[in-house]
Each structure stands twice: as structure tokens, then as C-alpha cells.
Amino acid sequence: MDDFTKIIVSENDIGRKLDQLSAAIREDYKGKDLLLVGVLKGAVMVMADLARRMPPTVQMDWMAISSYGSGTKSSGVVRILKDLDADLTGKHVLIVEDIIDSGLTLSWLLGNLRSRGAESVEIAALLRKPDAVQVDVPIKYLGFDIPNEFVVGYGLDYAEKYRTLPFVAILNPAVYGG
Ligand code: PRP
Ligand code: MN
Ligand code: MG
């Protein structure tokens, strides 16, 4: 049995897209101090590859958050497991996410970070599932819109596995007993 039914975003697709997005980000933040905020754990890969395309003065910080709610449904009520080290006062913040699914996580995070006195707070996300979005979040830098399927790889997990794949693939339903 193959663990994946289809690769939907290849390693090359990701690299080319990050080249484009990073060029736009470098231009937009020229002369400004930029703080990239990654959301653990899914954003680790995109953060690493995006940050390496930035000027060496770019800073990285991390948050770990968890949605309250039963099972797989996220509720939009979020708990901070690990907060930022950085004080955001006067900073230009770019939240880096692997995927926007319902949008509930990011919607909450955007409000939370915007209340901390940052000069600006924007979002970069590699993937979005338009058919799953429940709340609209303004994404300044978006990689790909993808179908509403269970995808893994490049940071995205199923039961903490498959995060290390260099591509994004649809998980074979047989893996989760579907
Ligand atoms: C996933 C993904 C996003 C979030 C998107 O994280 O990495 O952070 O869900 O979902 P939403 O748009 O419906 O809120 P997850 O909570 O699975 O944690 P992980 O990053 O550690 O895998
Ligand atoms: Mn995540
Ligand atoms: Mg996950």
C-alpha cells in the first residue's frame, strides 16, 4: 500500500513559490526590521525555507498553540502552550503558517498579536483550503489553494507523522482506516 494517493505540491513547486513570495516580502519590508513568527509545529519547514530567502537580519520567533475542542474539530478557542520570547512593540510581524484550514487558528492569532502593539502584523501561508474556510483571514502572502483533502508533508502531519516529506501529498485513506 502506498501512504499517499497523489503529490499535489511538489518540492520544485514549493521552491519556486517561495522564491516568488520571498521576493515580494523582501521588497515590501525593505529597510524595516522583520520578525517572522512561526506556529509550531506545522510551520517549521516553510519557516526554515522562507527565512533562508530573507536578509540575514531577519528574526524568527515561535508560538505553540492548541485549539480547545473535541477530536479533530477546532473550535476557534485557542490556548497558548508556548508564547513568543519577543516583545512585539513597534515590530513588523509576519506570521508564517503551513496551512489555513478553517481559518480559526489564524483568526485568533492575528487578533492576539495585533493587540500587542506591533507596528504591523501580516500573514504568509503556504497552503489554503478554500472549501474548508469558516472564517475569512486576510492572507497577504499565499502559496497555493488546494482541494479539501487530508494532506500531509512539508510540516503537515497525520498523528505527528509525515511532517518531514519534502512535498505535499494526499494521504491514502487506508492509512487512517478510511
Ligand atoms: C494545523 C496547521 C495550522 C492549523 C490550521 O496545526 O498547521 O496551524 O492546523 O487549522 P485551522 O485553519 O482549521 O485553524 P495543528 O493544530 O494540527 O498543529 P501542528 O501544526 O502541530 O500540526
Ligand atoms: Mn499548525
Ligand atoms: Mg497537525
Which helices and strands occur, and which strands form pairs?
Layout lengths: L3 E6 L1 H18 L5 E7 L3 H8 L7 E9 L10 E5 L9 E9 L3 H11 L5 E9 L12 E5 L5 E2 L15 E4 L7
Parallel strand pairs: 2-3, 2-5, 5-6, 6-7
Antiparallel strand pairs: 1-9, 3-4, 8-9
Helix pairs in contact: 1-2
The protein binds 1-O-pyrophosphono-5-O-phosphono-alpha-D-ribofuranose, manganese (II) ion and magnesium ion.
GO molecular function: guanine phosphoribosyltransferase activity; hypoxanthine phosphoribosyltransferase activity; magnesium ion binding; nucleotide binding
Catalytic activity: GMP + diphosphate = guanine + 5-phospho-alpha-D-ribose 1-diphosphate; IMP + diphosphate = hypoxanthine + 5-phospho-alpha-D-ribose 1-diphosphate
Pfam families: Pribosyltran
Short description, anyone?
With 178 residues, the chain is of the alpha/beta class. It has 3 helices and 9 strands; from the N terminus they run βαβαβββαββββ. It has a 6-stranded mixed sheet. It has a 3-stranded antiparallel sheet with strand order 1-9-8, with helices on one face.
